[in-house]
Amino acid sequence: MLPIAELNERSREVLRLVVESWVHDGEPVGSRTVSRRLSVGLSPASIRSVMADLEDLGLLYAPHVSAGRLPTEHGLRMFVSGLLEVGRLSDDERSRIDSHCQSTGRSLEQMLSEATTALSGLSRCASLVLAPKTDSTLRHIEFVSLGPGRALVVMVTSDGLVENRLIEVPAGLPPSVLQQASNFLSVRLGGQTLADVRRLVSADLDSRRAELDELTARVVEAGLAIWGGDEDQGALIIRGQSNLLQDVHAIEDLERIRSLFETLEARQQMLRLVDLVQTGEGVQIFIGSDNDLFGAAGCSLIVAPYQNSREQIVGAIGVIGPTRLNYARIIPMVDYTARVIGQLIG
């Protein structure tokens, strides 16, 4: 890609204004529009000359002979990497993300689902998150009473991930039953994954029911049953796909969105999402053909990893939409949401 330093100040300013105007209006940008927004005086003829030079460099193109200019993928990448001024989240945006990400009384998957919903609503795009795989070994399981008829199952993995889930228990259950259930599971953890513990305990309950009273056995079974059977794959959550249809101007746009929908529905493909962020830190931006998952749909992906307490990348959250994204506004949203999730799971 052409280094931004090889463009003079005038060319950089014209490119920046073309991209920003296109992001705002969605229409080809003409020389008069750029002229009105330039901070220094430059005639439309001079601007047309600069735009022609940018077109020769592959940074702009004209969709029609008499139309204004639009940025190419190459031009967008140059804008994002060298000209973009990232904005700051408002207090209201931070508050909305914080409130959706609160983990009290929610499972990890529920919290991530709410965080994804908040990000989709704020960005007005589709949002997706890959939840952590739970193939790490278990360190601790405990049952905690929350009052009549309810208990909390606390699971701690060897990599520091903590997840809490609510279960229903018989009203008036003695505290000793929860303690006995906790002890029964704790002695069977022994470096096992959750799937291993579920299999072992299910078989063990049948052979050792005489050692447990019926209430304790029911509590143990309920505590294991609340986790589904696909932990080894990691949960993929997608929200806000309908937002992608709000800015479709032509049939070719509709075809690209249809292609994107097909990609989003291919779960095994989407589980590669976390691979995109394993080698980098912070927010990463993939524009069009940068990303073979979404390149055919002509879309952009803004994605950030989140880490566990050992600073290991365990998942990723991001926003996907047309290349005409408001990058300055969405990048800090994704970054902040990923950091909040990391703090909560840590």
TrEMBL record:
One of its GO terms (biological process) is negative regulation of DNA-templated transcription. InterPro entries: GAF-like_dom_sf, HrcA, HrcA_C, WH-like_DNA-bd_sf, WH_DNA-bd_sf, WHTH_transcript_rep_HrcA_IDD. The keyword Transcription regulation applies. It holds the Pfam family HrcA. One of its GO terms (molecular function) is DNA binding. It comes from the Bacteria. Residues 109-331 form the Heat-inducible transcription repressor HrcA C-terminal domain. Keywords: Repressor, Stress response, Transcription, Transcription regulation. Belongs to the HrcA family. Negative regulator of class I heat shock genes (grpE-dnaK-dnaJ and groELS operons). Prevents heat-shock induction of these operons. This is Heat-inducible transcription repressor HrcA.
